[in-house]
Amino acid sequence: MARHEMRSATETKSMLTASPGTDLSPIQQDFTPPNLRFEVDDCCSEWVYPKDHFDYIHIRLLRASVADWPALYREVYEHLSPGGYIEHAEVSPVTKCDDGSIPPGSMWETQGELAIECGKSFGRTMQIQPQMKALITAAGFVDVVEYKFKWPLGPWSNDARLKDVGRWNMHAWEAGLEGWTMALLTRCMGWTYDEVKRWNANMRQCLLDRKVHAYQD
Hints:
- With 217 residues, the chain is of the alpha/beta class.
- The chain is 35% helix and 21% strand.
- Strand 4, helix 1 and strand 5 form a beta-alpha-beta unit.
- It is globular and about 50 Å long.
């Protein structure tokens, strides 16, 4: 997982007390923080907010949703007030391990390869995180800081915090797998609905294998 924090000038201003969040559809849960409200909007369209409007803009897990990352970063730069911050967090769909516990040619490997190929089929990247720092710097931001993390998949880590992160990440995979795969695999790879359902069922079984010490970065 890669996270970048940037500021557009040397002066730091306080964050807004009530912040809008945007998404393409109203799918958010009821337990959003009280200082956050969601609006249906497309961040890839022309922004309707005034220039220099925000003190802080957070972007997370957009992956192949964005066709033109430099254009999005320019919008962010133009709509941040002097001294404002952008934070952008992304994670690769590719799963890795450090101990050889992912068998060669297994679904752990093929799922990441499939995601990347799907993105390529419609001209998008599923792995924007290696380019984020350079692109955001090119947009005009200064004092760019990059943090890289290992994001475990499952509670296999001996570290208590990473074990908890792994539980949450596995829950996200179990709950989100069909939403991530159904449109991509049927539209981009030509799979049938039943083929995707079977593939997801097998992938969920892989997630339960405690011998695999998989993570994303």
